[in-house]
Write a structure and sequence with these properties.
The chain is of the alpha/beta class. Helix content is 52%, strand content 10%. It is built from 22 helices and 14 strands. The strands form four sheets. Strands 7-6-5-11-12 form a five-stranded parallel sheet, sandwiched between helices. The protein has a four-stranded antiparallel sheet with strand order 1-2-4-3, with helices on one face. It has a three-stranded antiparallel sheet with strand order 8-9-10, with helices on one face. Strand 5, helix 6 and strand 6 form a beta-alpha-beta unit. The longest helix has 25 residues. The two termini are 32 Å apart. Bound molecules: arginine. Arginine (ARG) binds next to helix 13 and strand 11.
């Protein structure tokens, strides 16, 4: 109902200006969704602040505003007479016909009231970003799921989004990896065919062990880094092989989770590192400290009150993670063709990297790389823990592999489904069972992650995420299935009553779209109407605050309000005058759940 909120804000603004011409400029009606249903739909707090600056009694100020509002035909068409509450809050309640008109609009609007923004410069979402030859762990999974959801929401709003996978494909660890590769699989370097290096995590561990225990190996590995950076063809080939194999493993996970992401690893920024130093030098920010080139941070100090540095070039001449991130910021903001010309950069990583990002953001700002209006945001998230509250591990104490974790969720969803089918005496095809189990299992993993406020740590529990009750994916998916069931039981008959089949045939009920035909009388209907109309505001909130759990909470509450409505108010057996309107609410609920879950990256089912 953001459009109604905007209209009413304008009218209130006008009323304020008319009632207090002397105070123009000081006025903000502060209209927002009401905090409690008894306050109506919207609540304006602006009269209090105005009364303070005018030194007048707040209630008198509110009364003067309300007197103006009472004469406004636009307000009168939308709202019941405004009420003053408490010291001077103005409460607005929408007229039933205004709500009905909004429902009618939603029923024919595939965007469900969410406005499409005019295209602007790109938004970059930097997410997932695992490291080559290392394991993609649950932290990367969290980044993948949250980043994908944020990208989907921004895309839906019409923003050009660049989804970037900033994989760790550069750095000193490649010295030992390449040295190990050359020794254990020399054949890999002489054939044109892809060679399977086996388990890369094991490979990494072996290389690391040799590096730590064998001095000759260590010396060769160091030389190897120099060769790689110097562009030696054989070293580059070995590097490429390692990247390819990791990439195949990462891609299997992305494919399974339907994640769209473009790889642009750290190595991409290699040619731009020198320019970073040059810019920092020109800006007068670079300080040589103990052989290293540093930028000292403002307002951040370490132990002895000494300002903390961001090290841009180490004393051995090497660059590090921060240097690459500086080059990335510079490139991403730079207008094309020299860069991406983005206006907003969003980084999704664990909270442990907060000070890294605060540091590089500050350096980027002081270097003058951020264009006017450009935004840099770190979207941090907490740790994934086991049910014991400790780091997630397998029973034998190993780190959990993502593939096993996803398989585990699907296997449990499969077992749950077979049990339920047996209980209900339902016979279903093997294909159906596998499809439902895989959708539910993966949805459960995604939803469990997204529904938590991302800033807190989160406890991974198959039992909790797969429960049919509570704030879970299965509960929401089931609400959609329930509505599809209403359609199958006859609800998708054309509600005009001529028995003609529904035009768009999507298996969902309720095609009434004409405001004149819609009518609601029960409190459960009005509660559902109001909840449905809040969808656009929630999307706007998530877009701004980058908190997907807001959308999850909204969808969960919507399912609850719907279930209450459907349990307490007859729909298929409703009297003829009410049936069409109720089916229309069912349809709009399903559409809202499907769109909302889609924005979370979760596909829905017709049956489960
Ligand atoms: N590769 C890093 C890690 O695994 C995450 C990179 C995040 N993105 C960035 N631009 N620093 O922790």
């Amino acid at each position: 109902m953001l459009s109604v909120l905007n209209t009413l804000t304008e009218r209130l603004q006008l009323a304020l200006e008319q009632a207090f011409p002397a105070a123009v400029g000081l006025l903000d009606p502060q209209l927002a969704a009401a905090s409690k249903p008894e306050f109506g739909d919207f609540q304006a707090n602006g009269a209090l602040a105005l009364a303070k600056s005018l030194r007048q009694p707040p209630r008198a100020v509110a009364e003067a505003i309300v007197a103006r509002l009472a004469d406004d035909p636009i307000v009168d068409a939308l709202c019941l007479p405004p009420q003053i509450a408490g010291p001077g809050f103005i409460n607005l309640t929408l007229r039933p016909q205004a709500l009905v008109a909004q429902v009618a609009e939603r029923l024919v609007d595939p965007r469900l009231g969410v406005p499409l923004e005019a295209a602007q410069a790109a938004v970059i979402v930097d997410f997932s970003s695992p490291n080559i030859a290392k394991e993609m762990h649950v932290g990367h999974l969290r980044s993948t799921i949250i980043g994908d959801c944020l990208a989907r929401i921004l895309e839906f709003r019409g923003q050009p989004v660049l989804r970037l996978n900033h994989v760790g494909d550069w750095g000193t660890q490649f010295g030992m990896l390449i040295t190990h590769l050359k020794q254990v699989a020399p054949a890999a370097l002489s054939t044109a065919d892809a060679v399977d290096l086996g388990d890369l995590v094991v490979f990494y561990r072996q290389a690391k062990q040799r590096f730590d225990n064998d001095e000759a190996f260590q010396a060769t590995a160091r030389q190897e880094v120099v060769k790689l950076q110097g562009g030696d063809p054989l070293s580059l080939k070995a590097w490429g092989l390692l990247c390819d194999q990791s990439r195949r493993e990462f891609e299997a996970i992305y494919k399974r989770l339907a994640i769209d992401i473009k790889e642009r690893g750290e190595s991409f920024y290699n040619p731009y590192l020198e320019a970073v130093l040059a810019d920092l030098q020109t800006a007068g920010l670079l300080v040589r400290d103990d052989g290293a080139e540093c930028v000292f941070l403002e307002g951040v100090s370490g132990k002895e009150g000494k300002p903390l540095p961001v090290i841009v070039r180490k004393s051995d001449g090497g660059y590090n993670y921060a240097t690459t991130d500086l080059a990335a910021i510079r490139y991403r903001f730079a207008p094309p063709p020299a860069g991406d010309g983005a206006r907003r950069l969003i980084y999704v990583t664990d909270a442990g990297q907060a000070s890294h990002f605060a540091g590089v953001f500050q350096v980027a700002r002081r270097a003058g790389w951020i264009p006017e209006g450009g935004r840099l945001e770190h979207v941090p998230f907490g740790l994934v823990q086991g049910e014991d509250g400790k780091k997630l591990k397998t029973r034998s104490g190993d780190t959990v592999r993502l593939k096993d974790l996803l398989d585990g969720a699907v296997e449990r969803a499969d077992a749950d489904l077979r049990r339920r089918l047996a209980e209900e005496g339902r016979a279903e095809s093997e294909e159906f069972i596998q499809q439902v189990a895989s959708t539910v299992g993966l949805a459960a993993v995604k939803y469990a992650d997204l529904s938590q406020n991302r800033t807190t740590n989160y406890q991974f529990s198959f039992d909790r995420m797969l429960a049919l009750q509570g704030n879970t994916a299965p509960y929401l998916l089931y609400a959609v299935v329930r509505i599809a069931g209403i359609a199958r039981k006859g609800g998708d008959l054309d509600s005009a009553g001529d028995g003609a089949p529904a035009e768009d045939g999507d298996g969902m009920p309720g095609r009434l779209t004409n405001a004149g035909e819609l009518q609601f009388s029960e409190p459960q209907e009005w509660a559902l109407v109001r909840h449905l109309l809040g969808f656009d505001a929630v999307i706007a909130e998530v877009e701004e605050e980058l908190l997907p759990n807001r959308l999850c909470t909204y969808l969960f509450e919507l399912s609850q309000v719907f279930n209450r409505f459907y349990d307490q108010v007859p729909v298929l057996k409703a009297p003829a005058e009410a049936r069409g309107s109720r089916l229309a609410l069912c349809r709009l609920t399903a559409d809202t759940l499907k769109l909302g879950l889609g924005l979370l990256g979760i596909p829905t089912l017709e049956r489960m």
